[in-house]
Amino acid sequence: MSSKEVKAALKSARDAIRNKEYKEALKHCKAVLKQDKNNYNAWVFIGLAAAELEQPDQAKGAYKKAVDLEPNQLLAWQGLANLYEKTSQIDVKAELADVYEKLLELYESGDKQKWCDVCNKLVELYQQEKKYLEVAETWQKLIQKKQEEAVEKAELHQLWKKMIHLLKDNTQDQDNKTEQLLLAAFEHALDSADTIPGEDHQSLYKDFIQCLSKFPYETARLEKACNDMMALYPTVTYPLEVLCLHFVQSGTLSEEALHCFSRLSEMEASSGPGIIGCGIKCLQEKKYKEAVKSLTEGLQKTDQCPPAWYYLAEAQMKIHKHRDTVLSCNQALEALETPEGHSYRWKNRILQLKAEALIKIGDADAAEEAVKALDQIVDASSNPVVLAIRGQAYLNKGLVDQASKISQELLLSHPDLSESHALEGFINYFQKSYEQAERSFLNAIERKAETAEYHQYLGLTYWFMSDETKKDKGKALTQFLKAAKLDSYLGSVFYYLGNYYRDIAGDKSRARGCYRKAFELDETDEESGTAAVDLSVELGDMGAALSILNEVTEKGRTGTAKWAWLHRGLYYLRTGQPSKAVADLQAALRTDPKDANCWESLGEAYLSRGSYSTALKSFRKASELNPALVYSVYKAAAVEQILGKYEDAIATYQQILETTEEYVPALKG
């Protein structure tokens, strides 16, 4: 076949393809290849015809042969691109990307529109494959090409916005280089906006700041972006809210941070980050109750902020709301698990605070939970303070040997640490080795004199050591007073001061004040509440006693605060108000239905009210729960007598006399 015949055959093949006679085209091409096996056009036509005949493997092989023969010719590459675009096979995606890259190279100096079309297709392919760096780099090439063509600023602006759209929703899957390209796109888009300031520009700035806030290492850029946006849009609170949350997250509460908190509160009093900021400021200023109030309110509006939950827990810990502290720590840990949680640099601090709170709760279950929290702290074994907390947890579980082992190790490795000596003191106090405990707590105070707990425990050590140290003003009393001065929220120390003034100094009025203070600080402290009420009664101040009881019963839910219901019920019984007494004593029994004495008092209340049948049932219930309550048995007999049940009354009186022969009321009955 001559070259003239080859050309004719190729023309016939082209015509056959145009007429959709693909098998005919293949015949002509094969004839050409017999003569010239390296004929580029013949291989391209075979690829095209085979593709139309749905023979993809033959088409692919033909195009690849053509590409090998003439790598810088367009036709075969275009054919491969068309072939790969039509197939749904995953394995050709990578090859398609290579084909597009080659087409970009071939179109570089020629058809600009086709170069842009292929570039768009390549970006879309990379987006599907989640190859975000390639997306960014390819789109940037497109923008550079447009810049070389000196296109309008508005068109460039739209291209930068498209790049942002391609990348901004997948920041968690991107490497640093891709992140930098995305942030650069934001900056270019902001600079190229038509109207500054303007609605679209403002929205774009907001997206930029939101994006920056996801990158923990872009703090300087975030601060600059927020400040720049505030300068352009002084009435918009968003950048200030982000900046406030950034300062909260960073844990560095500088003058600038405090200024931001104040400014946001002035602009938008109901802003969650602003209220959180005010709460943190209160915490710094040791206004702990105000801090708890503000942080709680702020977190109702902005709850996915682990550091804010931590600061709330810290404020609650300062006022000794230990169970609340644990709940807030759990919220902080939960927030850390969300994408907005950012990082785990707060996790150790939260877990440590949670463990400390659980230890203050004091029971074995809480101690077990504290150990679990400590187990999650990274590098806990190398932190002596965390080890001391673990020692206290073991002590609360009753594992004295394990606590002692930690104590001995800490005293050897960290003899200058107050916690090392305090742990030894707690162990000695637990074992009632008061002289050793005194030495340990004095050593702890020498190293950290401002810790109220050390003074409180030294005071307790003196209280239980001997009558002399209990009564010595320079011992127990002095340490309790120091503890109260260092921590005015430490309710338990005011309880012990009350004990001192009541039992040692004989100053009932001052004792009542201390008990009242202890109860105000901790409304679950029944001993302090009861003591304050009892002393008020002894001092003839029933108004003060009722004030405490009314406060507790108003706040108390059904089945709680038994002591308050019982005390008020007895007061009403003594003062001739039996109906009120019945209601309160019933409330007390809902808390503890097996209290025989309470049933006896309820029987008296019913009897005073004239409800004889219910009085009889109450007295019988009291004697069932405690057969030793002779008075209840006697009162049951007396009520039976009132009701005319004489035989029953006689039997009950005889029952009493069988065990207590000289019980005069029964003989009289």
From TrEMBL:
It comes from Geococcyx californianus (Greater roadrunner). InterPro entries: Ski3/TTC37, TPR-like_helical_dom_sf, TPR_rpt. It holds the Pfam family TPR_19. This is TTC37 protein. Keywords: Repeat, TPR repeat. GO terms for biological process: RNA catabolic process. PANTHER family: SUPERKILLER 3 PROTEIN-RELATED, SUPERKILLER COMPLEX PROTEIN 3. The keyword Glycosyltransferase does not apply.
